[in-house]
Prior knowledge:
This protein is of the alpha+beta class and 467 residues long. The protein has helices spanning 9-12, 62-66, 116-121, 130-152, 211-221, 257-278, 280-289, 294-303, 311-323, 340-351, 401-410, 419-426, 439-447; strands at 21-33, 37-43, 51-56, 73-82, 90-101, 156-157, 163-164, 176-177, 204-206, 223-231, 244-253, 307-310, 355-361, 377-385, 389-396, 432-438. The protein has 13 helices and 16 strands. The two termini are 36 Å apart. The structure holds 4-amino-1,4-dioxobutan-2-aminium adenosine-5'-monophosphate (4AD) and magnesium ion. Magnesium ion binds next to strand 15.
Amino acid sequence: METIRRTKIVDLLKREDFGAMVNVKGWVRTRRGSKQVNFIALNDGSTINNVQIVVDLANFDEELLKLITTGACLSVNGELVKSVGSGQAAEIQAREIEVLGTCDNTYPLQKKGHSMEFLREIAHLRPRTNTFGAVFRIRHNMAIAIHKFFHERGFFYFHTPLITASDCEGAGQMFQVTTMNLYDLKKDENGSIIYDNDFFGKQASLTVSGQLEGELAATALGAIYTFGPTFRAENSNTPRHLAEFWMIEPEVAFNDINDNMDLAEEFIKYCVQWALDNCYDDVKFLNDMFDKGLIDRLQGVLKESFVRLPYTEGIKILEEAVANGHKFEFPVYWGVDLASEHERFLVEEHFKRPVILTDYPKEIKAFYMKQNEDGKTVRAMDVLFPKIGEIIGGSEREADYDKLLTRIQELNIPMKDMWWYLDTRKYGSCPHSGFGLGFERLLLFVTGMANIRDVIPFPRTPRNAEF
Ligand code: 4AD
Ligand code: MG
């Protein structure tokens, strides 16, 4: 076969130099046609759109044609021609075809319309579907948007460790990391495991959040963000929880909670706008195939300013709804950790736009949050989104050494884990704030997918670590 430099399909479909000889490589999505001429829809992953290859059967060997099946990988040389029927501006009149990889009829993606559950079982192949191609291209673009947003605003990308000895959220949901022989654990006279000979010489785990180390950086570099994987051994099998998920955590010196809310709102709107500007073909595909309200919802979020409301006011609204006959599965009362149904009621039914709930009871929030004067609440903020519920959790941080120490002691957090964190308050303490955005929750919103397992390539959930 003649050597011609390969063109990606995304670029090829924009070309207008009809008559040029081109080469494309990709996988066969469909093949149809008559006894004289066949049409192959070829996709190379660079775009949701296929290029149509027109094949005059008389010009090709019969044995070769038999190998052009759904899923097969082809290299095609041909003439770029203006298209009339393919739905694209350009198509290729094939001159030479090479089958790089054959694909027999055991290929599970023969026809369209598989259930999402089935596609999860073949997560190694699902990127080859239109849906997952779109989702993973959007995932890439969102990651770029995030770095761009912070870089343009003078934030530094700071790398926090994945292996840690401290539990940032204090929720006891950590995966332990050890090289000890689990069949032969050494214990002391109280029955406690002795970690002296473990790899790190103490108990270590995968991190649930980079925030504590992020605060060390913010109180030195001014404004930082982290963007990396985090791990939570929470046994919740829901469409919104993963055991391994990616989180973005900005942390900013001298920001109070209002600045923090401004940053969160600007950040999310920037990401949503980016999706509409840079992933429109993919977003439109998902809108048309799965979720007819998707584009409207994305545009809706951009138009309106987010409601900002204290937790206590939110509870009043929910209690009124209950009094007026609205049925929730879980009870509503001051002090309760809101369930997703409560959050979604506020966002989708009451306000009909995103809500930032602030000033939560201190008992349901982490130790590091700034304590309010009422002695009952802390300067927390959760951003609640339509269809998702909590998409961001954050707070202004307690900057006062004594108050922070008291809270750590009240919660029985071991001081041996926290001395370095307390040093930020001991040496030149400053007001500061930050938050964490769940990357996959943002992707749920932007793609309209219903299950968080479908916006990460290889989901890790309770009892599932396949691939
Ligand atoms: O509210 P969370 O637990 O807050 C923190 O981890 C803070 N350290 C953040 C900070 O202030 N720097 O988690 C933050 C966000 C949640 O709002 C949610 O979007 C996401 O992380 N998240 C999860 N996403 C997927 N699966 C899970 N199991 C998640 N847990 C939290
Ligand atoms: Mg939270």
